[in-house]
From TrEMBL:
It comes from the Bacteria. Residues 18-436 form the DUF112 domain. PANTHER family: TRICARBOXYLIC TRANSPORT PROTEIN (PTHR35342). Keywords: Membrane, Transmembrane, Transmembrane helix. This is Tat pathway signal protein. The keyword Transferase does not apply. It holds the Pfam family TctA. The chain crosses the membrane at residues 20-47, 59-80, 107-133, 145-162, 168-186, 198-218, 256-280, 313-336, 356-375, 387-405, 467-487.
Length: 495
């Protein structure tokens, strides 16, 4: 695999591929820096663009966009105290006070370097543990994959930013949407209502672009947005080597936290940066400095959120289970090019795995160079007027979605899912479980029906096989935990 890594790294350094990756990085940075936009939206917007690309170039661009979007939130978090993405919430606690004190350059540069360290740490873990996890996953049968999808759904439902009932209903809705069209086994028509357009099922491009990008456009249009008045008086001495070395253990701990949380489906950087920040504050000898411009807090938050990227990619490429919303959309990138993430990907497409590793490494290095070179220029992206930005984005989404299926029906689906996404989030139904339900629906149904056929209808095989029994037990335990937490919250509110 190491040889494939260097071979693919050389291929990525060609002018055309490098330009595509740079474009993805800049789009990710742009979306991450603007409050209200996100890495998820950036990847969803570029997903239709990859339709005409070679698979390796398409995945490389999407990975670069993902990394750029997660890191881009640092800019508005530092200058405006507004996290550009949920992954930068904890960054605002110390980066903004440090910038207000006249050291915006130091705050930005510290976050940029920490992001690169976190990304490279997670890449090492991804390369080291992915083969072992894949060898284990190859032993999975239909029963184990069925139980794994149930456990993943329960984990996302419980950890969603909503009560467990709304999370569960959102996941069920995603599963229901995935059943539209012909059944994967048997070929029966379901929920087509006599429409020829629905017989082919719901495409992942209109679903993802509508649910994330169009819903955000609706929100930006109908809800008042914050007036952006950044301070571009950037001064400061920059990052000192002694500070960087002194935060070595802090970055190592935060990186491991980000990787561990990133692996858990549906959580990602939005939680890892807060957990790492809390751990850094608890371990610090001067906790009173946190919240007043402590560089330890910036190192912790930014290392963790980028480390969660590699963590989220680990279950994606080894098990076919997305670690967060962005990796769920990345499955669309694989699907568009006829690829199926999972244990067989290592055996059937080793060059693609090497390309993912090389793209991750190159994107992280390029991102650091670009950010440090534009540390005084790139923040001005915050001044782009929304009245110019939103119409351009809508046109790009419509054109890209139409191109993905060459049908106007895809565009209507995209707009419909945009309304659905806005409405569900407005009433507290999280999108994460819905996306995971849609992505895992075909996997769950196919393996469930195969398992029943293999067992001649005997459902006890699910609990007699050790791995599937353990995963089902974990799913039940997670659901019980969510219900208990919901009851406790209601008791607290009642008192």
């Amino acid at each position: 695999m190491l040889e494939l890594f260097f071979v693919n790294l050389g291929q990525l350094l060609s002018l055309d591929t490098l330009a595509i990756m740079l474009g993805g990085l800049l789009v990710g940075l742009f979306f991450g820096a603007l409050p209200g936009l996100s890495a998820t939206m950036a990847v969803a917007l570029l997903l239709p663009v990859t339709f005409a690309m070679q698979p390796d170039m398409a995945i490389a661009m999407l990975v670069a966009t993902y990394i750029g979007g997660i890191t881009g939130g640092l800019v508005s978090a530092t200058l405006l105290r507004i996290p550009g993405t949920p992954s930068s919430i904890a960054t605002t606690f110390d980066a903004y006070p440090l910038a207000r004190s006249g050291e915006a350059t130091k705050a930005l540069a510290t976050g940029m370097i920490a992001s690169a360290v976190g990304g490279l740490m997670s890449l090492v873990v991804l390369v080291a543990f992915a083969p072992a996890l894949t060898r284990l996953a190859i032993r999975f049968g239909a029963h184990e994959f069925t139980a794994l999808t149930i456990a993943a759904l329960m984990l996302v439902v419980v950890l969603a930013h909503a009560n467990v009932v709304k999370g569960l209903l959102s996941a069920i809705l995603g599963l229901a949407i995935a059943t539209v069209g012909f059944a994967p086994i048997g070929g029966a028509q379901r929920f087509t209502f006599g429409s020829i357009d629905l017989m082919g099922g719901i495409g992942i491009v209109p679903f993802m672009v509508g649910l994330f990008a169009i819903s955000e456009m609706i929100r930006q249009t109908v809800e008042p947005s914050l007036r952006i008045k950044p301070n571009f008086d950037i001064r400061g001495s920059g990052v000192r080597l002694a500070e960087f070395v002194g935060n070595g253990w802090n970055m190592l701990r935060s990186g491991l936290i980000g990787i561990a949380i990133g692996i858990l489906p549906g959580i990602g950087g939005s939680a890892s940066n807060l957990v790492a920040y809390g751990a850094a504050r608890q371990a610090s000898k001067t906790p009173e400095r946190f919240g007043k411009g402590a560089v330890e807090g910036i190192y912790a938050s930014e290392t963790a959120n980028n480390a969660s990227v590699g963590g989220a990619l680990l279950p994606l490429i080894t098990l076919g289970i997305p670690g967060d919303g962005v990796t769920a959309i990345l499955i669309g990138g694989f699907t568009i090019h006829g690829l199926q993430p999972g244990p067989l990907l290592f055996r059937n497409e080793p060059d693609l795995i090497g390309m993912i590793y090389a793209a991750f490494f190159l994107a992280t290095i390029l991102l650091l160079v670009i950010q440090l070179a534009t540390i005084k220029l790139f923040p001005r992206v915050l001044l782009v007027p929304r009245r110019f930005l939103l119409p351009v984005l809508v046109v790009l989404m419509i054109v890209g979605t139409y191109a993905s299926g060459n049908r106007l029906f895809e565009v209507w689906l995209m707009l419909g899912f945009g309304v659905l996404g806005y409405g569900t989030e407005r009433y507290g139904f999280p999108l994460g479980p819905m996306v995971l339900g849609f992505v895992l629906g075909p996997i769950f149904e196919t393996n469930m029906r195969r398992a029943i056929m293999y067992s001649n209808g005997d459902l006890t095989d699910f609990v007699s096989r050790p791995i599937s029994a353990g995963l089902l037990f974990a799913a039940v335990a997670l659901l019980a935990y969510g219900v208990i937490s919901l009851v406790r919250q209601r008791r607290v509110v009642a008192t």
